[in-house]
């Protein structure tokens, strides 16, 4: 065999193989590499978007937490005000009840004093009649002298 012919046929086989590889093998490989490159880029973009979403979610959580704290504080302050108002109202009602009870007690005491005075006047009148009876050594009729006894009670 001739070395030049072998070299020539090897060159032809090489060029056919190169053309076949460039025509049928290389495009699917480059397409596969480009698809893989695109998937990696999409994955990285999704990861960046996830990080951004996470940051936004964290910001929203912080905002919601701050709102909840301020709302809780507001409710606590309002509850304290309401408790103070209820205590003041109860205190006013207790003072009014105290005043009513004191007035009733004073009125009852005045009525009791008046009854005691009337009873004392009656007792004094009876004692005066008994004393007069003993002084006069005769019997004095209390029914006959009722007007005189009433007059005596009024003077006492």
Largest sheet: none
Number of strands: 0
Low-pLDDT runs: none
Mean of residue pLDDT values: 87
Residue fraction in strands:
under 5%
Count helical runs. Answer: 2
Number of domains: 1
Structural class: mainly alpha
Query: What is the element string, with H for helices and E for strands?
Result: HH
Cα-atom radius of gyration: 60 Å
Straight-line N-to-C gap: 173 Å
User: What is the approximate shape?
Assistant: rod-shaped
Task: Name the assembly state.
Answer: single chain
Task: Describe the fold and architecture.
Residues 47-123 form a coiled coil. The chain crosses the membrane at residues 6-26. 92% of the residues lie in helices and 0% in strands. With 156 residues, the chain is mainly alpha-helical. It has one domain (40-155). It is rod-shaped, with a radius of gyration of 60 Å. The chain starts with a helix and ends with a helix.
Write the layout of secondary structure elements.
Blueprint: H1 3-136, H2 146-155
């Amino acid at each position: 065999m001739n070395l030049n012919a072998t070299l020539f046929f090897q060159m032809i086989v090489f060029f056919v193989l190169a053309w076949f590889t460039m025509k049928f093998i290389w495009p699917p490989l480059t397409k596969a590499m480009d698809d893989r490159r695109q998937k990696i880029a999409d994955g990285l973009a999704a990861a960046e978007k996830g990080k951004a979403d996470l940051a936004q979610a964290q910001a929203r959580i912080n905002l919601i937490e701050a709102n909840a704290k301020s709302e809780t504080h507001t409710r606590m302050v309002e509850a304290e005000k309401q408790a103070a108002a209820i205590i003041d109202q109860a205190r006013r009602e207790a003072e009014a009840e105290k005043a009513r009870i004191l007035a009733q007690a004073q009125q009852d005491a005045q009525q009791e004093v008046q009854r005691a005075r009337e009873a004392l006047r009656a007792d004094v009148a009876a004692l005066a009649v008994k004393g007069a009876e003993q002084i006069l050594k005769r019997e004095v009729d209390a029914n006959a002298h009722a007007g005189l006894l009433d007059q005596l009670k009024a003077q006492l």
